[in-house]
Amino acid sequence: MLKIENLHAEIDGKEILKGLSLEVATGEVHAIMGPNGAGKSTLGYVLGGRSGYEVTQGSVTFDGQDLLDLAPYERAAAGLFLGFQYPVEIPGISNVQFLREALNSQRRARGEEALSGAEFLKLARAQADALGMNQDMLKRPVNVGFSGGEKKRNEMVQMGILAPKFAILDETDSGLDIDALRAVGDGINRIMRAPDKSVLLITHYQRLLDYVKPDKVHVLADGRIVRSGGPELAQELEREGYGEMAA
Ligand code: ADP
Ligand code: MG
Ligand code: MG
């Protein structure tokens, strides 16, 4: 589903990704671990198409298309979802307005009919319920005044509504207490564990991987994938740290 080859990317002329290659097959969950500053969030932003991130070499194919050729909204309409390490607050726009516009703009871009207000509300309520998020939060401005855990749950509600093919989740587990971690882990499994979907799970810790079992684990250090293995690699890293890979 996703094939990244020799990807080089820079911010403000500083090279951050330095020849990163990675392939995620349909139906698989891959975890990316790695020391701070390795380029994990940068990888997410480059795949999402954030401005300011310049690809200088390499290629990314998503579902047979040249991903780097698509505008960010086209990537989203093609089924790519990026969950942020730090979800942004958007005062003045309610969660419901925001999510309905996001979903309907994607549907229109795919040539599908937009959902009516009533249809959308039904979907949003079902997703909020499934995540254990209070329905009142759907009416509040996007993430404004939400706790860290509520923001991450809200990201999962958003993912449930948009139903992407491929989700990149950047430290969705950071700052969560045990109950929120379980809710988010269950949400990822329920929404994304399917034969036609894939996930790239960026995390610092083994604990999320106790809930969402990865098929493969990679270590990203200094802008490249330096090691790959099965779930046992995450346990080894938790025990022994990144050592020389962090240099
Ligand atoms: P990680 O998510 O693995 O902790 P990041 O992708 O956030 O790492 O950052 C990788 C490197 O890029 C770091 O050295 C960071 O300081 C640098 N970096 C990130 N954003 C910017 C920016 N806007 N301008 C310059 N350097 C940046
Ligand atoms: Mg970091
Ligand atoms: Mg990061």
UniProtKB/TrEMBL annotation:
Residues of the ABC transporter domain: 2-247
InterPro entries associated with the record: AAA+_ATPase, ABC_transporter-like_ATP-bd, FeS-cluster_ATPase_SufC, P-loop_NTPase
Keywords: ATP-binding, Nucleotide-binding
GO molecular function, a single term: ATP binding
Family note: Belongs to the ABC transporter superfamily. Ycf16 family.
NCBIfam families per UniProt: sufC
Protein name: Fe-S cluster assembly ATPase SufC
Organism of provenance: Stakelama tenebrarum
